[in-house]
Amino acid sequence: MRTVYLGFVAAFLIMAAGFWPTTFGAKHPLDALHMVHGSLAATWMAMLVAQSWLAGRWRLRWHRRIGWASVAIVPALVVSSLLVVRYELAFSTYFSRDLRLTLTWLDLWSLVAFCGLWGAAIAYRRRWPLHARYVGSTVFIVLPPALGRLLGGPFGSLAPALPPTYVIIVIAVAGLLVRDVVKGGHPLPYALTLLALVVPAVTMFAAPGWPWFVRAVEAVAPIG
Questions:
Q1: What is the rounded CA–CA span in Å between residue 172 and residue 39?
Q2: What is the mean pLDDT of the chain?
Q3: DSSP assigned state of 207
Q4: Residue 121 CB partners (closer than 8 Å, separation 6+)
Q5: Angle at Cα 197 formed by Cα 150 and Cα 213, nearest 5°?
Q6: Dist CA 149 CA 152 (whole Å)
Q7: Rounded to 5 degrees, what are φ and ψ at 123?
Q8: What is the C-alpha separation between 156 and 158, in angstroms, rounded?
Q9: Distance (Å, rounded) from C-alpha 216 to C-alpha 222?
Q10: If you ran DSSP here, which 8-state letter would residue 20 be given?
Q11: DSSP state of 25
Q12: What would you report as the CA-atom Rg of the chain, rounded to the nearest whole angstrom?
């Protein structure tokens, strides 16, 4: 338990490495929206690292204080994520139209899953084993964009890197699920997280061909 925080540190480093080229490594300064969104995402990850470190040392008062701060951080993060999705659809020309629709489907699905897991963590805040698993599972939901960008180099671009990205993360969650089943733990959070990852993984490249989805997207964010 005392070393669980190292897993969150590793996830934080993956996110930082994945988004480094488009933040500090970008040729042009980031706009305010992306700076705010990136700051909120980094704050969320830093909160997870701090909470897991504190919980491992039974400093629960500060753990709870940081946890309740998420009531302000998470809604702001979700709103900023939606605005970034809309911005990328309307103004980004780096990715093709179909890839932007694919990423939109992944992002929207991930936001729903993220909110559900975070809400479950709050609801089960007095049941420590479930609370910890629901909170920890949010990392697996937010990790694909960063890991996909990291793998984009070896695979040539982001699109072919998406399937192996989800395979890696699905395997990791499946391993935790099996461990809990074998040891008689609390597998439900991992089972739900696994479902939340498998569905977009098998549907992402089909999404641009769904007329209802394209119409819904273009109704709120015309594709540039």
A1: 27
A2: 90
A3: G
A4: 131, 134, 135, 138
A5: 95
A6: 5
A7: -65, -35
A8: 7
A9: 10
A10: G
A11: T
A12: 18
How does residue 221 score in pLDDT terms, banded at 50, 70 and 90? Answer: confident
Sequence-distant (≥ 6) Cβ neighbours of residue 195 within 8 angstroms: none
More confident call, 16 vs 191:
191
Task: Yes or no: say if 37 and 19 are a contact pair by the CB < 8 Å rule.
Answer: no
Is 128:118 a contact under the CB 8 Å cutoff? Answer: no
Among all chains, which residue has been given the structure tokens 């089960």? 124
The closest of 203, 198, 199, 146 to 172, measured between CA atoms, is: 198
Residue 209: how many other CB atoms lie within 10 Å: 10
Output the pLDDT for position 59.
Answer: 85
Give the single-character DSSP code of 26: -
Buried b (16+ CB within 10 A) or exposed e, 153-168: eebeebbebbbebbee
